[in-house]
Amino acid sequence: MPLPDTMFCAQQINIPPQLPDILKGFTKAAIRTQPRDLLPWSAAYFSALSEGRCLPVKDRLEMFDSHKTNNGLTPGLLKTLNKQLSPCETCSKKDLQKKWKGLCLPMDQLEDLLLLGSFVSDIDRMKFFALGCSALGGTLLSSLSFACEILTEDEEGGAARIPFDTFVKLYTYLADLDEDMSQDHIDEFLSSMETQVKKQNGMIQVSNFYTSRK
């Protein structure tokens, strides 16, 4: 249908006063996040914005080479996903799939992680987070390094400390998935760090478990 032959003057065009700030925030978020597909990410962004949910936005632009993991997942995206799923301890598979898709991550990689964790419906958030770290790190200790760097409340470039009980849960879960890792080895490793952790008020940092490795 052709547009009516009507002239509009500037006074007839109503621009919502919030629009400039909304567009500015959106543009900054897109630059920081660098989504692989702008359209579905934009839909997820504005849906979360309208509902007052955590936005699918990275804290900062990162230079992580996602091609090394062959799945597009980066520490920044995993951190964003974990924040979107917080503070609940569990989430539904449907909700996880929706948020994963909103971050433009490959769905086949998600299905691989769900299969590895034997998840069916209700998904333990921290266990899934641990699997995400393993997809980034490759080895157990490098995976835990990513976990500390993502979960820490320290400033960037700091000690990357997290509560020891959180570390124990992540380490134990990933170690249990390794058929070559004995329970004695797991217990010995955790025990070797207890003295250091007590001196640090129950916190553990990346350097602790690397120096404790034997």
Automatic annotation (TrEMBL):
InterPro entries from the UniProt entry: ROP_DD
Top-level lineage group: Eukaryota
UniProt-annotated location(s): Cell projection, Cilium, Flagellum
Annotated keywords: Cell projection, Cilium, Flagellum
Major site of localization recorded for this protein: other
A cellular-component GO term for this protein: motile cilium
Assigned protein family: Belongs to the ropporin family.
PANTHER family in alphabetical order: ROPPORIN-1-LIKE PROTEIN
Protein name: Ropporin-1-like protein
Species, as recorded: Zoarces viviparus (Viviparous eelpout)
Organism placement in taxonomy: Eukaryota, Metazoa, Chordata, Craniata, Vertebrata
